[in-house]
Amino acid sequence: MAGLPKLAVWKFSSCDGCQLSLLHCEDELLPLLGRIEIAYFPEATRTELDGPYDVSLVEGSVTTPEEAERIEAVRDRSEVLVAIGACATTGGIQALRNSADVDELARVVYAHPEYLDTLETSSPISAHVEVDHEIQGCPISRGQLLDTLLAILTGRRPNLPQSSVCMECKMLGTPCLMVTSGIGCLGPVTQAGCGALCPSYDRGCFGCYGPKELPNTAALAGRWSELGIPADAVARAFRTFTGNAPAFREESDRHG
């Protein structure tokens, strides 16, 4: 590899929060910059270097015909492509429209919907091109992002968690909200990574990091029902930030 590896950061339909997670690395980012060259990152620099790129970080979902074409071009120019965040890995909050009439939504929201050029669904990056790594979260964990970049640079596998948010609660000594307070929580079926932020403040997990490996959503939904939580509330809980992830979408549909 001649010179420093080239890093490109791309934005699709998203809020920019995951890109900001990279910028918020601050002190950790400075040593990393000595090992990579930022070739394309409009959020941080005007520099635009030609590809191909050694690593591309892609934030956001594919929601327009232009994005469907552009992700193909990004994939062709990238040796390693990493989808970062809930939008890129599941379709994000905008994928809530996948279960609705897009034309009707456009008429309600926009004064001139005839100017829109949108796809019927909002879909993750993996629905369009091959993805080498995925970092879940809304927004992503800075630690997971840095570890993934270092793993790629050193030729090892990223150390991404496979356990649930419940494990993080246990490590923090946070009592289970469902057991102690009867509060609905998606922690048992959600991938760790947030540090059990919401349960630490007596709020049930919202599933921001998406389904963990082999989530038993049916068992959790059954427990919610035992707690007296109505079916429509169960459906809404699974239909949020990562509601388009297959496991969450299917459980939501069973109750919606």
Written overview of the protein:
The chain has 2 domains: 6-154, NADH:ubiquinone oxidoreductase-like, 20kDa subunit (Rossmann fold), CATH 3.40.50; 165-255, no CATH class. A 5-stranded parallel sheet has the order 2-1-3-4-5, with helices on both faces. The model has no long low-confidence stretch (mean pLDDT 94). With 256 residues, the chain is α/β, with parallel strands linked by helices. It is built from 12 helices and 5 strands. The longest helix is centred in the middle third of the chain and has 13 residues, at 142-154. Helix 3 links the parallel strand 3 and strand 4. It has helices at 17-23, 29-33, 65-76, 86-90, 102-109, 142-154, 165-172, 177-180, 197-200, 217-226, 231-238, 246-255, and strands at 6-11, 37-40, 53-59, 78-84, 133-135.
